[in-house]
Design goal:
Elements lengths: L1 H30 L7 H7 L4 H12 L3 H19 L5 H7 L5 H12 L3 H4 L27 E5 L2 E10 L8 H9 L10 E9 L2 E10 L8 E4 L2 E8 L4 H18 L2 E3 L5 E6 L9 E9 L1
Length: 290
């Protein structure tokens, strides 16, 4: 009974800390909507890599980070135009980070359904995207299957590129370029390894084959020796994958008295042939003891 009470208190504490952290993240983003947002700092506040943070944020908030920022900016821009008839549209567009008036007008019209010039006239309803509100939701534990594996250092040789927050699906452009440039045809193995490194607020995504030769180059990434929490997946549906990352990082790790090891990339492992439905692939999170 004493142990059960301790576990309940621990789960409540983990949940409270998690809610506190995401609320702090939202405050930080809201304060930075008219300036430059440091995405690496956001991820660091939640002790995650930028890649993991983008996955978890999309699950918790219900939309990708880039979409949240875009909708909040356009919502606030409309509110300012409606409440301040003396402010210029150009001033508003610059305040919310648009490089040209035309790009702002286009984005505004697509979101609200009318141009910003009409917003300063009465009779138009704006589409306000509100800040999220978080509530406690304590659920019973569910059985989770995973492995802890040890692995030596290795390199991933293939194609590396940066993904910034504007990618709605994290690293989607890097994957598209990998296939469009036919880098997959250079692979000699049946397994594709992918690493996700933080790099100045962006995600450096490296896709290729595993090699024991540890080299550094523009098309190679080195993964250090590490222990990993490994879990198998049978879907690439973004919503499900985002949920699984949240489960791994905020349920499984604390419950197993483990934590994410900093300075080591997240790794995913795929079959080279992904044409089959429900093909199996793997998520690896670098870990150490709490």
């Amino acid at each position: 009974m004493k142990k059960m009470c301790y576990n309940i208190r621990r789960r409540r504490c983990d949940m409270y800390n998690g809610i506190q952290k995401i609320e702090e993240i939202i405050e930080y983003i809201e304060a930075g909507l008219t300036s430059e947002i440091d995405y690496e700092a956001l991820a660091s506040r939640m002790t995650l890599s930028v890649y993991e943070f983008r996955r978890v944020f999309a699950f918790i908030v219900g939309c990708p980070l880039s979409e949240y920022i875009r909708k909040r900016k356009l919502s606030l821009a409309a509110c300012e135009l409606m409440t301040n008839p003396n402010i210029s549209i150009r001033e508003i567009s610059e305040r919310y980070g648009y490089s040209t008036l035309s790009s702002f007008s286009k984005a505004f019209s697509e979101y609200h359904g009318f141009p910003p010039t009409a917003c300063q006239k009465e009779g138009h309803e704006i589409s306000l995207f509100p800040r999220p509100k978080f509530e406690w939701n304590i659920q019973g534990g569910e059985k989770q299957a995973f492995q802890i594996i040890s692995d030596t250092a290795f390199s991933i040789k293939g194609y590396c590129a940066l993904s910034d927050y504007t990618d709605t699906c994290c690293c989607e452009k890097v994957w598209n370029d990998f296939y469009e440039l036919e880098k997959d045809k250079d692979l000699s193995e049946d397994t594709i390894f992918v690493s996700y490194h933080d790099e100045k607020g962006k995600v450096k995504c490296c896709i290729g084959e595993r090699t024991s030769k540890l080299t550094e180059s523009t098309d190679t990434d080195t993964v250090p020796e590490c222990k990993w929490l490994s879990i198998k997946m049978n879907t690439t549906d973004d919503d499900i994958v985002n949920r699984k990352y949240n489960t791994l990082l905020y349920e499984i790790l604390p419950s197993a008295k483990l934590k994410r090891k900093e300075g080591v990339p997240t790794v995913e492992v795929y079959p080279r042939d992904m044409s089959e439905d429900n093909f199996e692939w793997e998520i690896r999170i670098p870990i150490e003891k709490e």
